[in-house]
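The records we work with from here on pair a chain with its fold. These numbers are not coordinates but entries in a learned vocabulary of local backbone shapes. To see the layout at work, look at the sequence and tokens printed below.
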Amino acid sequence: MSTLTKAIRIEQHGGPEVLQLVEIAVPAPAEHEITIRQRAVGLNFIDIYFRTGLYKSPLPHGLGFEGAGEVIGVGKGVKRFKVGDRVAYGQSPIGAYAGVRNVPAAQVVHLPKGISFEDAAAMMLKGLTVQYLFRQTYRLQGGETILFHAAAGGVGLIACQWAKALGVKLIGTASSDEKTALAKKHGAWQVINYSKENVVQRVAELTKGKKVPVVYDGVGKDTWETSLDCLQPRGLMVSFGNASGAVDGVNLGILAAKGSLYVTRPTLAAYVPTPEKMQAAADELFELVLAKKIKMQIDQRYTLEQAAQAQTALKARMTTGASIFVFE
């Protein structure tokens, strides 16, 4: 039996005007799928990449990868979930901007009672991103000094808190005094306002000339050179996003010239490829949230009708913390 729901669809790539609010029929869950009545859905930069066509998916399609809600249907072969379970996900097939949807059970995790649906929708993709960055890509032990760009964004604010919980000194960058203050409040050791200060110079000063062993860069094109210049010899450049545009035309010789640097372009999917690994990563995040070492800051709440407005604000860097869609 199908369920009618509202959802965002795009039929062509382009600006926010291509986002269409439509009513769709969600079929009964297929084998190994569950049906989720969504209570909150996360908004992320990757949604804009798919809308513009920077990242490809066959058209027409929905948008969004992150949400939280209750299980209302269970497909054949699903043993981990039952109707009524509280669940969340941060890495699903495209199409989270919807009131009801089917998701492969393997990509969903159990949500503890102490964590709200809104917090879960704001934290899954961003929080699991910080988990794989800090605990897998370059495993922070505590005591390191690191550089994290866009420290006042949704991922950044979780990173500031997680770094503090690990005993790591996080140097965060942001575009305004208001944003640097926000990053500091969330646990950044030091902050740099890149619109007023020279990031490379400040990192050198803060580290007494040593620079950092790892840079986490979700900005992309605009910060590429700066990031490389902040690394110690044989340091690791972790380029995990393209908020300012894709990094291309890279001359590998630069890595040699700047000290035999390493570069990786990781994705969450490659780090949580099984249900067990995804639940384990989520549990590490949930543990810190339940211990109040990480608190979600949701500064923007929208309805699906406001999807264009929401993406416009995110793209223009007018947002702080996390943005979510909420349902009645």
